[in-house]
């Protein structure tokens, strides 16, 4: 679907939402909006798409209370703003939307904080089945970048530009745009995608020439990955047939980074089929690596232990592999960072660790 068609669909769906409120008034019903309950207990595994999505449980935003009426009023104002933004072919950030509301003529429609406006945009995505990118809403800069043998064409306001993500970029790589669906793949010599949690490890791989030697597309996740990063990763897998592996620190919070790439997050389960890559594999740091390589470690904190125990109950981690690794980590009571591999030398990660793990996984 073209960008213009996406814009038109987004406008149409938003106007339909506003029209529903009027229809409810006309029928003598109390205006309301039903939204899937965003909790772990309402996440179900979709066998067809192989990702975790919201179940049948709903929460209702209803005008039968002052609090509910305020939420619907804010939704109506936000819908009007988004429709006008699309008509004018403008865009704004989530942060700007929060501040923009202060200029709205009804004080009751203004947001109390940014988390409230962020949640409303997510609500509108869920009920309209349109992504915020198609509302022309941008997050703040994620800084995520790609380095590797990929030739693309990017749509910009100044026209299209062709970029090779190795030859036409500096050491920093190609910065992923807010909406990766504006990227056209022109050519690809990559063998796989390596998603890397930390900037320090990403820089080590590029400095050591890992992307060149192994024809790898190195994607910097920048911590918990932004939606644009996850969307591009999914497109690289689905459209170019590239295996995806995720390389993080060896702690429970980093395992959740892998989980969001592979299966989606609770917060964005309505977009799992758009963002998640269920075929993505976890390459490390594994708890088993901490033992096998005798890596420098830190002890698990109480919050680490609680997080690991929670992951044993998380449907995204209910596999023999994860149960074995998490139990091992609880037993050894240790965690390790990606950079701990440097204890074996600066080249160990690119010369030994990653090639051996990739070979074991059948990627190399």
Automatic annotation (TrEMBL):
Segments forming domain Type II DNA topoisomerase VI subunit A all-beta: 140-188
GO molecular function, one term: magnesium ion binding
Organism: Halogeometricum pallidum JCM 14848
Protein name per the record: Type 2 DNA topoisomerase 6 subunit A
Lineage: Archaea, Methanobacteriati, Methanobacteriota, Stenosarchaea group, Halobacteria
Active site: 99 (o-(5'-phospho-dna)-tyrosine intermediate)
Cofactor(s), names only, from the UniProt record: Mg(2+)
Record's subunit section: Homodimer. Heterotetramer of two Top6A and two Top6B chains.
InterPro entries: Spo11/TopoVI_A (IPR002815), Spo11/TopoVI_A_N (IPR013049), Spo11/TopoVI_A_sf (IPR036078), Topo_VI_alpha (IPR049333), TopoVI_A (IPR004085), TOPRIM_Topo6A/Spo11 (IPR034136), WH-like_DNA-bd_sf (IPR036388)
